[in-house]
Design brief:
49% of the residues lie in helices and 14% in strands. It has helices spanning 15-26, 39-53, 67-80, 103-131, 152-171, 190-203, 207-218, 227-237; strands spanning 6-9, 30-34, 57-60, 85-88, 134-139, 177-184, 249-252. The chain has a seven-stranded parallel β-sheet, sandwiched between helices. The longest helix is centred in the middle third of the chain and has 29 residues, at 103-131. The structure holds nicotinamide-adenine-dinucleotide.
Length: 259
């Protein structure tokens, strides 16, 4: 379905981004992976994916909190012939009450979870326009729609990326380019594992109890969303069937935001 297309998936060395990269490669899409991690492990991931799916897989080692790195990554993508699908997924979390939220953590969360998506979009959209085909999929969160305590920067960034999604969707509405956001509920990735570990440390409860409490507080299904499920949704948004899905903030959250 996506043979001949190339996707940049930011933050694809782990978690949701990796699930989306697998789903797109399964459709025949070439990939540019990005994210942090051990260089040897990333090279193994890159070559395994290329072999398993028979697609081209490159790695762009950009720190997306730095605009100059994003510009280098975009130039690397142009050298490959541009990207048709941009998945803005890389993200971090920091939890703290707002009055003691460290300003440098605020800046770091906003830089990666919001500004990076602006920069990749502004740099890669012209190539999509030239080909009159493109897909931009922004990984927001339920926290783009509703708030939780102690997540000021994250909630602000995720609300912001849904706003950015809508603007880009409107500016591309009469083209073959779509821009949408996906709003996952809890997904058991390293980002969430840190929050489970913090509960275990703070309350002396078991990891299983901490996991159950965390999901149960917000997610009526009491089950985690999986990276595979999110990958399937991203692949759908990249399909022709989704040509008229524009500016959506599509939840996959076990009922979290239905309450
Ligand atoms: P994760 O920690 O498993 O993966 C994050 C990825 O981003 C990794 O590949 C990491 O190396 C990369 N990354 C981190 N900092 C980076 C930087 N400065 N430059 C480039 N890459 C960087 O996290 P995840 O849970 O898979 O989260 C992915 C996205 O999904 C994030 O935007 C997150 O906010 C969002 N999300 C996660 C959940 C959840 O429950 N896990 C829920 C809703 C939304």
């Amino acid at each position: 379905m996506l043979k001949g297309k190339r996707a940049l998936v930011t933050g694809s060395t782990s978690g949701i981004g990796l699930g989306i990269a697998h789903a797109l490669a399964r459709q025949g899409c070439d990939l540019v992976l990005n994210g942090f991690g051990d260089a040897g492990a990333i090279e193994t991931l890159r070559s395994d994916m290329a072999r398993t799916y028979g697609v081209g897989v490159h790695f762009g080692p950009a720190d997306l909190a730095r605009v100059s790195d994003i510009e280098t990554l975009a130039a690397q993508c142009q050298t490959l012939g541009g990207v048709d699908i941009l998945v803005n997924n890389a993200g971090i979390q920091h939890t703290s009450p707002v009055e003691s939220f460290p300003p440098e953590r605020w800046d770091a969360v906003i830089a990666l979870n919001l500004s990076a998506a602006f920069h990749t979009t502004r740099l890669l959209l012209p190539g999509m326009k030239a080909r009159n085909w493109g897909r931009i999929v922004n990984i927001a969160s339920t926290h783009g729609l509703v708030a939780s305590v102690e997540k000021a920067a994250y909630v602000a960034a995720k609300h912001g990326i849904i706003g950015l999604t809508k603007v880009v969707a409107l500016e591309t509405a009469q083209t073959g380019i779509t821009c949408n956001a996906i709003c996952p509920g809890w997904v058991l990735t390293p980002l969430v594992q840190k929050q489970i570990d913090a509960r275990v440390a703070a309350r002396g409860i078991s990891p299983e109890q901490a996991k159950d409490e965390l999901v149960g507080e917000k997610q009526p299904s009491r089950e985690f969303v999986t990276p595979d499920q999110l990958g399937a949704l991203a692949a759908f948004l990249c399909s022709d069937a989704a040509n008229q899905v524009r500016g959506a903030a599509w939840t996959m959250d076990g009922g979290w935001t239905a309450q």
